[in-house]
Amino acid sequence: MAYTYGFEKLKVWQNSIALVKTIYCCTRNFPNEEKFGITSQIRRSSLSVPTNISEGVSRKTPKDQAHFTTIAYSSLTETLNLLIIAKELSLMNEDDYARCRKQVEEVSFLLNNLRKSQQP
């Protein structure tokens, strides 16, 4: 059995991975002309959330950890902004948008709690 790293046990990391999967699923049907536009951007910003969580958890000081949690939160708000734009451009339906937005809100809540725990 493979070793489980600390970040893999975090609910915020697990939920952010679920968000990435949902984003990838919902953007599959975006127009081909958006492949290198909003599709790529929203996927990259969503990927940045669990990536920064995992990197931050590996840091030694709470200050360094909190820095990466802040970056993860910034990427999450970028993802939300792109979801809003995608909905406004009718690139995604209301149900997909609502599902993604709910996951963003859950991850946001958990990230805020993680950030509070990292403050001295």
Explain what you see:
The protein has 120 residues and is mostly helical. It has one domain (29-118): Up-down Bundle (de novo design (two linked rop proteins)), CATH 1.20.1440.60. The protein is 74% helix and 0% strand. The chain has four helices and no strands. The protein has helices at 11-27, 38-57, 62-88, 94-118. The chain is elongated. Keywords: Ribonucleoprotein, Ribosomal protein. It comes from Haliscomenobacter hydrossis (strain ATCC 27775 / DSM 1100 / LMG 10767 / O). This is S23 ribosomal protein.
Output the CATH class name: Mainly Alpha
- Could you say what the CATH topology is called? de novo design (two linked rop proteins)
**Principal-axes shape call:** elongated
Q: Helical region count?
A: 4
- The class by helix and strand makeup works out as mainly alpha
Terminal residue distance: 36 Å
User: How much strand content do the residues show?
Assistant: under 5%
Query: Do you know the CATH architecture?
Result: Up-down Bundle
